[in-house]
Write a structure and sequence with these properties.
Distance between the termini: 103 Å
Structural class: mainly alpha
Number of strands: 2
Helix content: 55-70%
Strand content: under 5%
Largest sheet: 2 strands, antiparallel
Radius of gyration: 27 Å
Shape: elongated
Number of helices: 7
């Protein structure tokens, strides 16, 4: 009996190979935009992809850079509270005070002002590397606050009033802080010019955040210090 009497035949071009992800057969489709980054490109095309009607047993999952960025952001968000608590504990141990660490921690949001301005002016995307740059700025701004408050305390120990101590401390620490800003920004210029799409957002976020936040710190910390430590207070 000829086989054609009991079966139908048709042509079929199978994939060259099947790969597996989590023990499931997977076919990977990749795409790249000339101008947009993966996250922005995904935002544009995902409504069309999600509206596709798939056969039973098929599903679509997003991987590659979008997936790794999401995992990285989740890991950073999970460990950020632990890092902030560690910073507070170290500051309390260093100054033996709660008000001084509070003054320093209140300066941390200032980094967002400069970082956002830098990204907007340079027309850069808010990518995962830009987020890393903002996190790295926290340590620099905290260091500037420590240096400034330590100098204010030193001037107060010399018998000066809080008003005079703040003025003398700002005059003494302005130059070192500005030199730190300048040298760091100059060191990041090669990354901004030649870092391309991956490292360019990180460079401009650090440069903008450092420039604006450090300058604001010179005015923000003294004001907070004078509010937290009135003239009659000696602790």
């Amino acid at each position: 009996m000829p086989l054609i009497q009991v079966a139908d035949f048709e042509g079929y071009l199978p994939p060259g190979q099947f790969t597996r992800f989590n023990q499931n057969r997977t076919l990977t489709v990749s795409g790249k935009h000339k101008l947009l980054q993966a996250a922005d490109y995904h935002t544009q095309i995902w409504p069309n992809i999600s509206s596709m009607v798939l056969p039973e047993g098929y599903r679509i999952e997003i991987g590659s850079e979008v997936e790794s960025s999401a995992k990285g952001n989740a890991a950073l968000a999970e460990n950020l509270p632990v890092a902030l608590i560690g910073i507070v504990v170290l500051l309390v141990l260093q100054f033996n005070s709660f008000r001084r660490p509070m003054v320093i921690m209140l300066t941390i949001p200032l980094v967002l002002i400069g970082a956002v301005m830098g990204l907007m002016v340079s027309n850069a995307f808010f990518s995962f590397t830009a987020l890393l740059g903002i996190y790295s700025l926290v340590g620099i701004i905290v260091n500037n606050g420590i240096v400034l408050i330590d100098r204010i305390d030193f001037e107060r120990d010399q018998g000066k009033s809080i008003h005079d101590a703040i003025i003398e401390a700002c005059l003494a620490r302005t130059r070192p802080i500005l030199m730190t800003i300048l040298t760091t920004i100059l060191g990041l210029i090669p990354m901004a010019l030649f870092g391309e799409a991956m490292w360019f957002p990180m460079a401009v976020a650090i440069m903008g955040g450092l420039a604006v936040a450090s300058i604001l710190t010179l005015g923000f910390v003294p004001v907070l210090y004078s509010l937290f430590f009135p003239e009659a207070s000696t602790s």
